[in-house]
Amino acid sequence: ISGTLNFYSTAASGTNNSSFSTFLVSAAPTVALSGATITLANTTTNGGLTAIGGNAGFTNTTGEITAIGYAALYYNTTGDQSTAVGVNAMLSNTTGSYNVAVGHIALANNTTGVNNIGIGGSSLYGNTIGVYNLALGDFSMCNNTTGVCNIAIGRLNDDPMIAERARDYLK
What we know:
Blueprint: E1 18-20, E2 33-34, E3 37-38, E4 50-52, E5 65-68, E6 82-85, E7 100-102, E8 117-119, E9 134-136, E10 151-153, H1 161-170
């Protein structure tokens, strides 16, 4: 194994945080270690943040999040208990909580929406404030912006009626 692993931080406090990437969180990075604790830039009071990838979780202040991939959860500030895996996954999230995004630009435009799950590249891409949505498959519900309680399964599926059909079948 070769290369360099850099830990960067300019945070004021916080515990149980991890950051792995070159130039991940600061143009003039510093390292703050206290025992096994690593704190991150802009992380002021939270613990439990994991960021792996350039600029992942960059603006996080208090949210307990997991951001894996370049710019995953980049704009998150206080959004809590969210997980983003993939380049630009949940990029625009600021205060949305309890979301899961797996795939390139999944839930990329979500800002304040909560309890959404997007699995697949571009799934729930356009979602901004929609809540309780589940999208499985590349581009599934990619045009949803404010929808509530929808389920879409399958590539390019913007038809949340699949949930209605499933509900009728289960009756």
